[in-house]
Predict the structure.
Amino acid sequence: MFHIKLQKWIERISSTINLFFRLLVRLKTIKINSNNLIEQVYIVGPGSLNITLLTACFISMVFTMQIAKEFLYLDAASAIGAVIVIAFTRELSPVLTAVIIAGKIGSSFTAEIATMETSEQIDALYLLNTNPIDYLVFPKVAACFIMLPILSAISLTASVAVSIFVAFIMYDIPSSVFLSSAFKALSISDFLSSLGKSLCFGIIIAFVSCQWGLTSTGGAKGVGNSTTSSVVTILLTIFITDFVLSYFMFQTTGSSIAQANNI
């Protein structure tokens, strides 16, 4: 049983890669449905903004309380801003945003396309001379590719603002000290790495969710299984990709926090 599931999962991964290249080939001749594209952009962006901001705020509160408490005990208050901002810029904001979008949007994309597949609506698109890649896949990929970096940037801004507030209210750390430490430690490469990760995560969410929907079988039960499998696969792929990207982006760089605090 496990062998069959593993084989099916590997086949879906290979078909997802194939879908990626098929979309690249069709980019020159693709027929863009502007209304569908705008709808998908709204769903991924403004439609997910509330939950993204809410998650960012509470995660930043907890993270700031834990970091500030330990660093004050070590008499290293000047490094709190650097640690928090670097952590959110390099890792927490892009990854958390991707996880939220994977759960909310990835599952929605898979369920929508899987339902169309099992009810033979995909076949109807071919009869109407409409390519499913043009009508279904491309708008979702474009929406994730455009909106995930924007959501990640908004999440980062909200997280830093809440961290500054919590550090000042609960631990009496002036915002000037917090920001001074953060600006000394941050560099353009940190923002670029965050942007690159968000773009990669957006592509992963869109392609995996769409392909899992297109390969769904077994009626209503198959739709549920495909949706669950899609989200799990997206999350695992995001975490693995994050490790690989972080390894190549930061293994040769020195300690930004140490440099900022002249350690």
Q: What stands out?
A: The mean pLDDT is 87.
